[in-house]
Design brief:
Length: 164
């Protein structure tokens, strides 16, 4: 009879240990999911507060284009992140990503044309002027420019270069 009591006690202890291990695993995964959810909410909040508008583009020479982009979202875009913008440019059907401040064309640079607070960051309501130096002569036709922020928010603009 004593051996039955010992066996039942061992089974009870084994069950308690198994329940503890299972509870720990479950709580760990819930905690991981909660952490992931917090990160997702932050990213979504940041994306929803970031908005830009490409509102004008024009060729200023046979190889240079100026593009004006306004920050219309609530997020300030820091200088280091402005330099990480993806600028896509080219004639209809043949556009490509242009590197920032490359040694030779194609390349792009920028300046904040109305840095209201003088901090060098791209704040709400401020406009950046992007200068694209193309590696070919801009021939007559339609051209496309798209600007994409560090977190995937984008806007685009089509414009024409006249002949003659």
């Amino acid at each position: 009879m004593a051996h039955i009591v010992v066996s039942e006690a061992m089974l009870t202890i084994a069950c308690v240990i198994a329940v503890c291990v299972l509870s720990y695993a479950l709580l760990s995964s819930v905690s991981s999911f909660q952490h992931y959810q917090i990160l997702q909410n932050r990213a979504l909040s940041e994306r929803s507060a970031t908005m830009i508008e490409v509102f004008f583009a024009v060729n200023i020479s046979s190889t240079n284009v100026k593009v004006w982009v306004k920050n219309i979202g609530g997020n300030e875009i820091r200088k280091a992140l402005i330099e990480k913008l993806d600028v896509i440019f080219g004639p209809r059907g043949n556009f490509r990503r242009i590197p920032y401040n490359a040694a030779g064309p194609p390349t792009w640079t920028y300046q904040i044309v109305n840095d209201v607070d003088g901090d060098g960051n791209w704040d709400f309501g401020e406009t950046i002027e992007i200068t694209i130096v193309w590696d070919k002569t801009l021939e007559a036709g339609d051209y496309y420019v798209k600007v994409v922020t560090y977190n995937g928010i984008s806007d685009h603009y089509w414009f024409s270069v006249g002949g003659g």
